[in-house]
Amino acid sequence: MSYTVIIKRQARQKLKILSSVDRLRITDKIKQLGINPDDPKLDVKRLQGQPFYRLRVGQWRVIYDRQEVLKIISIEKVKPRGDAYK
User: Could you tell me the CA-to-CA distances from 18 to 1, 11, 12, 71 in Å, in that order?
Assistant: First the structure.
C-alpha cells in the first residue's frame, strides 16, 4: 500500500536550507506519508478549492498532491505556517 514520493524542486530547495532538526522532522513525516497517507496520526487535511493536501509538521506545512490510481505523492511545497496558503 505504500506510495512513491516525489519531492519537487521547490520543496527540495527549501528542505536544504532548513535547520537539520526541522529537516529531519519533516522528512520523517514525509516518509510516514509515503507508507500510509491515511494514517490518523499524521495531521493531514485537504485544502479547500484546490486539488492539494497539507501535512502539518510543527510550524511547517507540506503541501502535496496525491494520485490514488498511480500511488504517487508529489510534494509541491514546504513553507512556514503563515506563507503556506498564499
Answer: 30, 11, 10, 28
Cell triple for 64: 502535496
Amino acid symbol at 68: E
Instruction: Say which CATH topology domain 4-80 has.
Output: YaeB-like fold (3.30.2310)
d(CA 16, CA 76): 15
Is the pLDDT assigned to residue 86 strictly greater than 70? Answer: no
Sequence ranges of the domains in the chain: 4-80
Residue 85: predicted pLDDT: 65
- How much is the pTM? 0.90
Q: Which residues pair with 72 in a beta bridge?
A: 4, 67
